[in-house]
Amino acid sequence: MERSLIESIAAELTGSQPAQQLVRGIGDDAAVVRAGAALCVTSVDAMVQDVHFRLGEGADTPFDVGWRALAGALSDLAAMGARAGEAYVALGVSAEVGETGALELMRGAIELATQTKTVIAGGDVVTAPVLMACVTVVGWADDTSELVGRNGARVGDLVGVTGRLGGRHRRPRPRLNEGRALARAGVHAMIDLSDGLAADARHIGESSGVRLEIELAKLPLAEGVPTWEQAASAGEDYELCFCVAPDLRERMQDAVSEVSDVGVTWIGSVEPPGPADGPDRAGAVFSDERGEVVRLQGFEHSW
Amino acid sequence: MERSLIESIAAELTGSQPAQQLVRGIGDDAAVVRAGAALCVTSVDAMVQDVHFRLGEGADTPFDVGWRALAGALSDLAAMGARAGEAYVALGVSAEVGETGALELMRGAIELATQTKTVIAGGDVVTAPVLMACVTVVGWADDTSELVGRNGARVGDLVGVTGRLGGRHRRPRPRLNEGRALARAGVHAMIDLSDGLAADARHIGESSGVRLEIELAKLPLAEGVPTWEQAASAGEDYELCFCVAPDLRERMQDAVSEVSDVGVTWIGSVEPPGPADGPDRAGAVFSDERGEVVRLQGFEHSW
Predict the structure, then answer these.
(1) Widest CA span of chain B, in angstroms?
(2) CB contact under 8 A, B126 and A48
(3) DSSP at A167
(4) Which of A185, A227, B44, B291 is deepest in the core (most CB within 10 A)?
(5) CATH class assigned to A148-294
(6) Is the Cβ of B116 closer than 8 Å to some Cβ of chain A?
């Protein structure tokens, strides 16, 4: 559902509004707005009970939900290379969790905000049938050269990822420092893996008009993830995928290792796309260790 | 519920985060963040089906909901005196309304965005049990002197409101031009009446450490509103309430009439507060045409 809806919304917006201040709008991890000399980078992430999380024994606590709602939005800033600024949290509070649960959710968000030096500057509280959190984050950059979108991948680039894929964490860490380091070191395109590598590699390929060729056998699997397919298809991953000129390979590894110990793995390359109606059109292709193409599903949800 | 929850959240935030860039945080209509030379003014408003609106015959259409979700957030910018910039719309889409309803909601938001020169720059789309919209708006100002909060009312000020109170509009117009004109003309404090005059006048009084004395007989009633009580207690009003030095009375009327024909009505004055535990403490008092105090209820939802 969501992909076609997002495309319809984008179509409604096109031409309906003047937007000189908009450096990047719908179609990337975050919107970029010119604000005097600075750039304001904004992303919104909504999480709904029984859609994105479950509460209860063996499942998430409201604290986990608050943490992850903020983490998801911050991860979009990481993928743009922006530094985290402020967060605004709108809470939908159900009778089931009440004030106690809502406050626990906020404590989770505040804990991650503190760790990432994000300021929670406002929000809203409403009654809702289930627990929900809608987090807007605002990040900042001094210049467009500090930021990177999905649409800059070039033929010949290497494709890299941070960390290990497919792990599900109750309290994941958005790769803010890594994203900023990679953007400043000169990656051509970057995205976070919130929809899973299968979908997000395709987003880069389609936005850039190129074809990403990913070798599944090279994927760095998180502990306990049994197959490449699972690592590539799992959504809600907080690692970053990026495309970069091959001669910058070492510079990228150094840039990441200066700020973090998650590491970088090279998983593929960027190739020219075939005809738009053919199997090799712009997007992403995944192959197994025998070189055979594997079809993978991903999630779609952001715009 | 919401008031105590908001206070608990504010208490959690206090001291937990460094916030040099925060000019105004929780406790006003919008947060104000320093962004280089500019000021970024942000507010979030969430609307949930069967809490804030109903769908169906004789009730709202998704178009109305989209319009009003954006209007509510823009109204907060109006109350600060900021100019509208960008909006981010997170949609919770139920099976009941589907893609068609979600797109109609977006069309309502886009229509108001076009009329107010607001750019819809991004958002999120998720599945939800009922239709929901969470709108974040970002406004801008060049200098803190252009903006006005709730906390600046002074003893001796007049209390004014724009337009007529208590009317319920499917597609209300946020008072952006009026708010900006009033802020620039020098009001000391301003708020929008989204919680209703009874609650919002008290917000100004409490934030400013003064007591607003409102004469109900002076309220400008919207067409079809039978009583002052109803006009003062209705939430979701989009007019502005403001406090201003008495010698600026005419300047304010002129400032508003230059940008709009909604007009200004003077409804009370700002008095010193009595002891914090007494009936005359900081806040607001409402009296009827015989001078007798009337108790009124209002809504609470924003932070």
Answers:
(1) 57
(2) yes
(3) -
(4) B44
(5) alpha beta
(6) no
